[in-house]
Fold this protein.
Amino acid sequence: MSRLPVDSSMLASIGYSPDRSRLELEFRDGALYCFFDVPEAYFQELMTADSKGTYFNRNIRNRFPYQLLTAAGREN
């Protein structure tokens, strides 16, 4: 899945797969997570949010199952 760089102090890039409802978030510390069963509206709202970190914390974190793909401090 390709990710787009974003202007955020928390997130480095964001990607979304509409056919699989998967959201990939790359954090500034290098951690890469895949969130499952995320409706496309959440991706759209995240991309347009004034604060992507705040949106993530309020609407995505602890609400969707996820998997750590790359640990913090490691390259992809």
Remarks:
- The first strand starts at residue 4 and ends at 5.
- The chain has one domain: 4-70.
- The chain is about 20% helix and 30% strand.
